[in-house]
Design brief:
single chain; alpha/beta; Rossmann fold; seven-stranded parallel β-sheet; two-stranded parallel ribbon; 10 helices; binds uridine-5'-diphosphate
């Protein structure tokens, strides 16, 4: 993987306006990162997207490639990030976030969290750029209280298959805290389950799995009895919260997620209803350390950022189903048209 020694100005040379910020988005070709890049560009900023394309996909940002204010560099943040020239903001959204994906190479996941965050913090600090770290509800582990407020310290198993991600993100938060004490300008978002268009069909998380299974007629795989809960936030709502946090003066971690809680069983039923699928529901073993419940307390985000999610699950799912329909069936449709 190459070191990125090019000046920012070589990558995105022209400033559209005096208020344009020079922004680096690590993980910008990922599901959330690509939506963020799109919003930043729409606001007139200059964006360099850094991605190792492990779970990110160039297809997620293909529609942005023609924009002269956008550039993509393939780089793995476990290596130092050497990008010359002034920078105003550094966003760290780089890490596989789906359990099967982040468990595929756990040491790499751990290094992405720790070495990667340190490299980006060093870069941000050297340019006096503001830094935002995409942390996670996984810092609360398998929580013993609900909803989870930022003051809750969590129940994380350090000796299990989720630890590479959970403990990696917790340690990265510690780095953010310590760099903040040294004067870095740091924001930390604790992101709860997020879904929406541009999730990969191979992602492995529950929303993408259920929608893909329903659309292709495969069995819907509920892990365990399906009574575990999650709260699902539509990606546009999340990105809105991230932008508000980055523009705020809030230096403590902030939960960003949708506080409406569903069981996994509820989700399966909703997906089946909305797709009209005849897929069977089957039960598979519950993965080790799978959290029993998860629901954010978003009081801090509401008070400090004036933020709360607006998109109900059914509305967001409808967009997500449309996305997967077009991604899964596009080649067949194109072939039919061409014949
Ligand atoms: N899950 C499921 N079937 C699947 C994928 C996930 O029942 O095909 C469950 C999983 O065990 C967990 C919940 O759905 O209880 C959310 O899992 P996901 O992988 O989306 O993310 P997590 O919140 O666990 O990080």
């Amino acid at each position: 993987m190459s070191r990125t020694a090019r000046p920012f100005a070589d990558l995105v040379p022209s400033a559209p306006s005096g208020t344009a910020r020079r922004i680096l988005v690590a993980g910008g070709a990922g599901f959330v990162g690509s939506h963020l890049c799109e919003r930043l560009l729409a606001a007139g900023h200059l964006v360099v997207c850094l991605d190792n394309l492990q779970t990110g996909r160039l297809g997620n940002v293909a529609h942005l490639m023609r924009d002269p204010h956008f550039s993509v560099l393939r780089h793995d943040i476990i290596e130092p990030v050497v990008l010359d020239g002034p920078l105003d903001e550094v966003w760290n959204l780089a890490c596989a976030a789906s359990p099967p994906q982040y468990q595929r190479d756990p040491i790499h996941t751990f290094r992405t969290c720790i070495d990667g965050t340190r490299h980006l913090l060093d870069l941000a600090r050297s340019r006096e750029a503001r830094f935002l770290f995409a942390s996670t509800s996984e810092v609360y582990g398998d929580p013993e209280q609900s909803p989870q407020a930022e003051s809750y310290r969590g129940a994380v198993n350090v000796w299990g298959p989720r630890a590479c991600y959970d403990e990696g993100k917790r340690a990265a938060e510690t780095l953010c805290y310590e760099y903040g004490r040294l004067g870095a300008d740091v924001r930390v978002a604790r992101i709860f389950n997020t879904y929406g268009p541009r999730m990969s069909p191979e992602d492995g998380r529950v929303v993408s799995n259920f929608v893909v299974q329903a659309l292709t007629g495969e069995d819907i795989t509920i892990y365990g009895d399906g009574s575990q809960t999650r709260s699902f936030c539509y990606v546009d709502d999340l990105v809105d919260g991230l932008l508000r946090l980055m523009r705020s003066e809030v230096r403590d971690p902030v939960n960003l997620g949708n506080p409406v809680e569903f069981t996994v069983r509820d989700l399966a039923r909703l997906v089946l209803d909305m797709t009209g699928s005849t897929s069977r529901v089957v039960h598979r073993a519950l993965p080790q350390d799978d959290p029993r419940q998860r629901r954010p307390d978003i009081s801090r985000a509401m008070q400090a950022l004036g933020w709360e999610p607006k998109v109900p699950l059914a509305a967001g799912l409808s967009q997500t189903i449309a996305h997967f329909r077009s991604e899964l069936f596009r080649p067949a449709a194109a072939a039919v048209q061409a014949s």
